[in-house]
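Allow me, if you will, to draw on your knowledge of protein folds for a short while. I have a record of one protein: its chain in single-letter code and its fold written as C-alpha cells. I remain grateful for any guidance, and I place the record below:
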Amino acid sequence: MPKVPSPPQDTNSIRFRNQLVTLSHGPLKYENPGLLDEALAVIPLDRIYGEAEDESQLLQAQAASIGRHNKPEWGYQDCVIRALLKWFKGTFFTFINNPPCSLCASPTVGISITPPTPDEQARGANRVELYRCSDDACRAFERFPRYGDVWALLQTRRGRCGEWANCFSMLCRARCTPSSSGGGFMSTLAKELGITQGYTPKVGIPPLVFFWPRADVFLLLLGWGKKMSYCVAFSADGATDVTRRYVRDASKHGLDRNRCPEEVLVWITDDIKKMRRENTAKEDRRRLVIEDHREEKELRGYVVQALAAQIGQINLSGQRSPSGEGEKLPERVSGSRAWSEARGEAGNHPSSENERQPREGQ
C-alpha cells in the first residue's frame, strides 16, 4: 500500500531529516560550471567514445544474431559509462591504502590522525592521516589528507572509497550523465548513475569494483555479506529512497530501519525534492514528476519480484531450495589482498599468504 507522507515529529526523525538534508547538498557542487569544465578537460573523450562505439556495435550484432527484434544488453549510453569507468579505475584514479613515501617511495606505516593545514582545509580536508616511512634510512613523515573537494581530487587523483565515488560522480556529471550519490548507512559508499536512453533503471556501481554485467549491484550485499538499513540517492533534483533496489531480502541483507517511521521518510524525500525543484521551470518539473513515477513503479516491482522469488524457493517439504552455493564470487580489486580479506570483500577465491596486512580504513 502507498504510504501517506507524514512530517517528522519526534527527535530521532527530526535529526534524521536534518542529516538527509545536509547530504542532499552534496550533488549541488557538481553543477559548478568551472568545475564541470575542469572535469571534462581530463576525460579522453575520443578514447571513451571509441571504446563505447565498438562495444555498442558488438552488442547490437550479438542481439541481432539471436533474433531480429532482440535488443542489445546495453545501450550506447551504457557503453559510454562502462568505458568511462574502465578508464577511471584503470588509468586515472589510484586507490590508496597506506600512501608510499614521497621521498623514497618505500611503504609507510600509519601513525595517527593530525589536524589539516589551512591549505588542506581549504581544499576540503577535515582530517589528515599521518604516516611514517618504513625505511630506517629515511623515516620521513607522509601526510594523507582526506579531501572532500572534487577539484582537489582531480589534481591528486588518489584516495579511498569516498574520494573514488566523489571524483567519479563529478566526471559522470561533466560527461552530461545525471549522477546521484547514494548515502547508504553501511561501511562503503555506493554510487548510482542514471542511464537515460529512453527510460532505463539506474545502474548501481559499487566503488572500486568493475563487474558490471554480473550482479555487481548486489555484490556488497550478496557477495560480501554486507547489510544495509537505508540507501538514499541524492541528485541536484532531489532525493529518493532506493533501498528496495538493493535489499531484496530484508531478513538476509537488511538492517533495522529505525531512524524514523516509513511515512516520515517519504515526507522527507518529498520535501527535499520540493526544495531542489523550487526554481525549476514548469516543463522540467513535469518531466521530473514523470521520472519519479517511473522509478517508484520500478522499485515496487522489485518488491514483487522478491516475494515471487521467495515463494519459488520453497519446495514441497516447506524448506527453501539452496541457491548460489559454491558460486565463484568476485573480489574487491582495489587495495591489497589481505586488506580485502580483513573487510570480508575478497570473494571466495583462495588467498595468498605472502601479502602484508595493510592498515584498515575507508
Q: What stands out?
A: DSSP finds 13 helices and ten strands in the chain. The radius of gyration is 22 Å. The first helix runs from residue 11 to 24.
